[in-house]
């Protein structure tokens, strides 16, 4: 999506970019555990990722680290759409597991 992308288009594209790296969260790592990790990402206007943090832990530090790694693997996001007023946007990604592995 370019500068004219809608909010939904931009967020759907980010989700697609992130899903490409879901193979890093393997069933072996999960070991039958269930839960969710919430990751907060600060995206700068040019798409650079300034910060990735665990906003809400799943209670499993090894899985939380892997989910951070998944987001970090995207590298750079597309530039922010024009409607985002300001130099950055704080986004939250919700990763339920093992449900995230489906699709």
Characterization of this structure:
This protein has 103 residues and is α+β, with helices and mostly antiparallel strands. 30% of the residues lie in helices and 27% in strands. It is built from three helices and three strands, in the order ααββαβ. It has helices at 7-19, 27-30, 61-74, and strands at 35-44, 49-56, 88-97. The protein has a three-stranded antiparallel β-sheet with strand order 2-1-3, with helices on one face. A hairpin with a 4-residue loop joins strand 1 and strand 2. The radius of gyration is 14 Å and the shape is elongated. The two termini are 22 Å apart. The mean pLDDT is 92.
Can you summarize this structure?
The chain has helices at about 5-20, 25-30, 60-75; strands at about 35-45, 50-55, 90-95. The protein has about 100 residues and is an alpha+beta fold.
Q: How do the SSEs run, as a string of H and E?
A: HHEEHE
Distance between the termini: 22 Å
Given helix and strand content, the structural type is: alpha+beta
What level of helicity do the residues show?
Answer: 25-40%
Output the strand order for the largest sheet: 2-1-3
Q: What integer is the average pLDDT?
A: 92
| Number of DSSP strand runs | 3
Radius of gyration: 14 Å
- Which overall shape is indicated by the principal axes computed on the Cα atoms? elongated
Strand content range: 25-35%
Indicate the low-confidence ranges by residue numbers: none
Q: Give a short account of the largest sheet.
A: 3 strands, antiparallel
Helical stretch count? Answer: 3
């Amino acid at each position: 999506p370019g500068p004219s992308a809608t909010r939904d288009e931009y967020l759907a594209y980010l989700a697609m970019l992130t899903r490409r790296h879901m193979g890093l969260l393997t069933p072996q790592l999960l070991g039958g555990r269930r839960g969710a990790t919430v990751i907060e990402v600060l995206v700068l206007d040019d798409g650079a990722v300034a910060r990735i943090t665990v906003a809400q832990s799943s209670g499993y530090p090894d899985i939380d680290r892997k989910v951070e790694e998944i987001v970090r693997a995207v590298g750079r996001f597309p530039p922010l759409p024009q409607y985002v007023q300001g130099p950055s946007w704080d986004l939250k990604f919700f990763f339920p597991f093992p449900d995230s592995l489906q699709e």
